[in-house]
Amino acid sequence: MQIVGYSDRFSVRPGQTIRFMVSCEKSTYRATMVRLRHTDANPCGPGRKVEALTSAIDGTYPGRPQAIHPGSYAAIPHHPILNCPDGFCLQAWIYPTTPQQGRQGLLGNYGGDAGYGLFIDEGGALELRIGFGERVEKVSTGVALTAAHWYFVTASYDAASGEIRLHQRRQAYGPAAEATIQRTIAPSAIGARTADFLIAARRQQSGEIDAHFNGKIDHPRLYDRAVTDLTSSDQRHLVADWDFARDIGSDRISDIGPHHLHGRAVNLPTRAVTGHNWTGDEDDFKAARTQYGAIHFHDDDLEDAGWEVAFEWSPPAECASGFYAVHLQTDDAEDYLPFVVVPQTPRARIAFLAPTLTYLIYADQRFLDPMRDTLGVGQSDSATPQDQYMEDQRLLSCYDLHSDGTGVCYTTRLRPIPNFRPFYRMPPRSLAADCPRLLNADLHLLDWLDGKGYDYDVITDDELHAEGEALLAPYSAVLTGGHPEYWTAQMLAGMAAYQADGGRLMYLGGNGFYWITSFDPTRPHIAEVRRWRGSRAWDAAPGESYHSTTGEMGGLWRYRNRAPQKMLGIGFISQGSGCNRPYRRQPDSFDPRAAFIFAGIDDDELIGDFPALILKHGAGGFEIDCADTTLGTPGHALVLATASGFSDLYQVALETQLASAPNTGGSQNEAVRCDMIYFEGPNGGAVFSVGSISWNSCLSYKGGDNNVARITENVLRRFMEEETPCPTSAH
Predict the structure, then answer these.
(1) What is the pTM of this model?
(2) For 59-98, how does the pLDDT look when each residue is reduced to its tens digit (9 = 90+)?
(3) Fewer C-beta neighbours within 10 Å, C or N terminus of the chain?
(4) Would 403 be classed as within a structural domain?
(5) 243, 270, 297: which is the final residue of a domain?
């Protein structure tokens, strides 16, 4: 991508400021503001509707390329005592995950061929580098480390005698479990250093950080003398003792040694991970902190691209709520940086809740996860410029794996997100190849609302997380997007309170309210997910299912007694591709309580049996939900209609069955279905759920003159009425 950018937030209110970062290979570029109405170019729909606006950011700007530098490490600010002129001893427990990948830094005060440092060498063995200028010594054990094993490693040097001792001991028994090298070199000065002491990386003479380590490091220490007795508890020469079990929920690196040489973790290495002494008796790091004294570093971690701000913008007070974007252009390239303008105070009775947290978890998804192969989705050589950029820059989503094969549990807004774009379509190696998704798909609903003349506000997950019920309370009806999958505890609490107070929710999607997710309390640009059980792209390692930033248990909300069926009436059951299916009315649809929903719909009419903008045909499909009273579907809920008859590309979700078994495909198992459901809540509240990602993609068929649109409007009109949707005696 010749021009690409990002913003520091996904939503902004009048009075707030949003900042934009841009990298451009040309000398200049143009920036203009647009409003996004509909961005799906499918000729079966209304086409692209992008409204050009006049704003304070409009103009020509100087271009400059800006690089992305992935790879995590820990940096300890320079202190003279770290130079250790009389000698040193480095100690740590390490758990390498790619020891054969090439040179990797472990810890030390080394860079630009000066100082001292412990490394993994090109052959995968432990190596000490020491010296200054042309007199740099390299000492290796010559014994390659084994991936995914804990090692105690130590390197010592006596400046007076020139004696070097290098030692590695594997925690597990077996061949080559221990190696020790002793060598005497000509005594020489190490060379004074002024740069940071680094853990899990190396600093070049240019200042560039490279040689990133893949794996865990636990309890690194530094002494200012050679230490020959590794079992000694003598602390007289201790310089630093970095305890990674402290401040787990932050980027702070704490030194419990005498000099308090604290540092900072850079680029989001994974914390709340098991250390060398984890016994397996506790899986919650808060209950056994001393067993979680490790940090897992990766060469492709990233928290903040760190680009310079190109320009910023504050919405004027009169700015209408909705989806906007900054349009970046050169003579032969362009990019769009989308965001939401949230009203300062509510202006409408309808709120669309944009699933920005789900957008963030999917940010930079490269479809390289093992789930793709499990679902039978093959690789493809074709790639859009956006997909290629994500690949080239090593950008990762929480659906991808790090280069060492471990799952990506953090995501951040502060980087380019090329798949968070108004015209982005799914790549060929996805279930919904060449279909819109997330932002692009959610605009199907907003365009329909515009066409019907409804006033609405757009609010986001970010505000719901921060403000809870107060954000939702002014609205008669809250509408979700097509895929509100990721929710925080605060978001669920806000929605539950809204429903308890008589709020009316239209869940117009599938696979919603599914994964436990959290925002970092002090760094809100960071979100975290820990995957275990459920339909997942990767598995959290044993003992690592708790979120580092909040301390809460990860996984599915159903395992914390908050199954989506309790709030939505339905929950995830399957996903697949191929042709969607129409809904058939069920006996409950003829209940008088549901009469308003089916006004204008014939008794035997198939619902959504016509062209769609997702998977080409049908309202039910892609990712689908069904009712289940054992998981919390209310007893008075009405199952109004059901889409069934899916192909065997749709399999029963893993979390719903006790063992692997045949007959779990859509053509064989009646559980594979998508249910439309309605039920009343307290104080005049109500819920209408469709259980399909594809539902909104049918709204525009025949200019909105179709039964999917009719049902949606029937419910919306009733939900906007002041009176109770149905008699309270019904429940």
Answers:
(1) 0.95
(2) 999 999 999 999 999 999 999 999 999 999 999 999 999 9
(3) C
(4) no
(5) 297
